[in-house]
What does this fold into?
Amino acid sequence: MDKITIYLDVNGERHAVHCEPRKLLSDVLREDCRLTGTHVGCEHGVCGACTVLINDRPARACLAYAVQMDEARITTIESVAQDGRLSPLQQALHECHGLQCGFCTPGIVMTFEAYLRENPSPSEAQVREALSGNLCRCTGYQNIVRAILLAAERLRAETADV
Amino acid sequence: MSEPTFRYLNKAVPRTEDYRLLTGYGCYLDDIEIAGALHVCFVRSPHAHARIVSIDTQGALQMPGVVTVVTGRELAQWTNPMRVAPPVEGLLPVEFATMPVDVARFQGDPVACVVATDRYLAEDAAEQVMVEFEPLPAVTDMWQALEPDAVQVDPAVPGNLVSHQTYSHGDRERANRRAFRVVEATFHQQRQTHVPIETRGCAAVWDAGRDHLTFHVGTQVPHPLRTQLAQRLKLSETQVSVISPDVGGSFGQKIALYREELTVAALARHLKRPVRWREDRLENLTAAANSREDFCRTRAAVDQHGTLLALDLELREDFGAYCFFPANYLARVVAMILSGPYRLQDYSFDVKVVLSHKCGNAPMRAPMSITSWVMDGTMDAIARELQLDPVEVRRRNLLSPEELPYRTATGELLADITPSQTFEAVVAAFDYRAFRQRQQAARQAGRYLGLGLCNVVEPTTYGSRFYKAAGIPGSGHEASWIRIEPSGVVNASVGLGPSGQGYESAMANAVAEGLGVPPSSVRIHMGHTDIAPYGMGSRGARSGTAGGGALYLCALDARRKVLAIAAGCLDLRDAQSLRLTEARIEHRSGDEWIDAGLSLADVARRAYMDPTALPQGLTPGLEFHLTYDPPPMTYSNSTHGCEVEVDVSTGAIRIARYVIAEDCGTLLNPTVVEGQQHGAVAMGLSGALFEHMRYDETGQNVTGSLADYLIATSTELPNLEIIPLHTPSRATAAGIKGMAEGGVMGALGSLTNAVNDALAPFGVVADRHPLTPMLLRDLLRDKL
It folds into this structure.
């Protein structure tokens, strides 16, 4: 299959990618951009492990072809911690033991980095509803939910301080 | 007994492995870059049972990027077959090839392997491998499989009965004569699979100059896997290094050396090029490993008060087409520990394990998961039939503290467990009497609440004496090393295979506690067979007791030498008045401990850089190695209580409250333990409510995606309330007990008992999983 060239803005860096039109965005991010924090768990859009932000909105990287993303802005897990400092959400997941094997974690972080921006004061039920698109086999979700609510609380306090 | 005071153990701290996993810089198998690696794709049988007539690889070989296509014929020359033939009474030996040559035995059985320059091209070419199959009749149900003229799965297993074990203890006839009634109950557990979010995969690098294989694979058991891999490849163990990176969950699926993995290793050696494989989800669901699928029937002889006099167990298990493990291994544990915390001496079992044309079985987190559901379900059946209160029936049969330690009917020794305490704690947490009143009131209003209880005695750790007694080859010991470096920091290793549980944190605590240093100065190295000592890996809730114990004891050895050197530095005759705390030497003065002006780093420098100054008899360096064989079995215990509401018009189940009282002894890190409790209960509830590996009557797997094979999401699982108890084991290092599987056992039992409690007014009993709305509606259809 002939390869074509596309341009992706990944975490603020411009990548020229020469790939087959059928290559998945998840594979391009991992193999061509060498950002392996985006994990592939099912390749059919159910598990949510590969969630990244496409133009600031969460989406499954395994359900998109990279060529569809020409000139798009992609945000991956590698950009969330700044200068070695965890984001409030990452920090809360750490403190609440909201991750075990960590394979689903990047997808959950990306989903809720975006979610908490739009929904700063979610209820537990709303968090659980939004989290239901990310499968986790280790934690039973309880501590993930606790961490997201804690992160929301801290983010609200931060916003109030400004 | 008095609880020893610990500085680091029993104290909750966040995990040290989190940072890399949260930031995307973990390194899982597929994140390892290997220049020039070839990718494989397996061609699999579309039939449950078929003769392989011919395989035409010509079309595939002409595809772009294709390097080679191999079948079972090549692999038979390059590898030894798998033979599972432990000398166990009632168990038939089985043997199978790396890839079948003549007959495929389940839908998904690999029959050819395409090697290409990338994964997309390998998948393209796999479609062009032309396999002519002659479909054969398939047996897809364990009852069919046991019929006299059933189709044979394995020619070496007549009647498909791969294992049949019976046992009897006590005087069954005496019990029957005394019995007021014999209560019968049945339990059907459906076929399931592990669903690690990271599927299987591996990467093999053959060094043709050194004749050495480096094999990257996410595994729970790095050293036993290396032993197998070397043997199957006709290599020596000095020619193989197994490296397990970060692993995205395993749950028992990543123990066996699978045929795909062996194929990849053999290809790398044959082609003298790196070869890798990433399993896709369809393969993981249909062709990795299945688990469970059991039927149990109990017959309980009881007196009129519900006292259990005798129990018979009939157990049937469907093991699928291939035995990657001895087929008796999982079912036997169920039969062995069935009575749990209940008083029982007159006991017998009859356990049959059968083969069928389905993906083969592997242990899955709590391979004995059905046990507590069967036992506490039997308690509920007794209460129902005799119209007694289920709490009173349990109280009557639970072992009291005075009866412990207790030798069970199968010879197991239950010690340092607290079943009546955990039980009463959960009964009190639910305010049992008040619940019954609430339940009555709700029924008047047409709402159906149920409370289910389940007592769990979780077998953990499995020491080598257990293996010996069970006739299973292998050992239950574990190995560790500790190296205090010249700067005073500590490297340590143990033969475990972590897959997300948090061992780096938990094991650092074990070393820190034994040695007397802060956990932050300890780095744990695991998963690399050239670095770690030969251990038995992670399985059967053994890592805490066996691995943590080995490190703790090794750290005590290290501390003894450190203090002996320190005594020399301080011109003391011996180290009796010294201790190591937070990496500082302290000296006793009266009742006080005073800093001796010496750090661990000072001691380490002398040990490495000035060995002639060491006290007589001490050798240079601070390197320690220790192996530890834990008791044959270590038991922890818990009680689970689950309150549900069943919507009888739709069959929907809502979990209203979930409480666990669990006693798992000394905790290496309570944060990690809590995570394991949550995860185990989640897997149990998910299995009881949703999961079902389904095959149609022709043996087609109809659950090949995560939209078909359902696991619980965040909206279906409850928050758990945990009441912790900490009774140390007197038989293990530091009083550690295993845990992490009991939660599955308790969840199956408590949820199902709760549902049946809710359904009691209708006189129906759900005796099978998953507890789908359709199942409940079927039960209720004519009763409303």
User: Anything to note?
Assistant: Residues 156 and 186 of chain B are 31 Å apart (CA to CA). Chain B is about 30% helix and 25% strand. Chain B has a mean pLDDT of 97. Chain B touches chain A through 53 residues (CB under 8 Å).
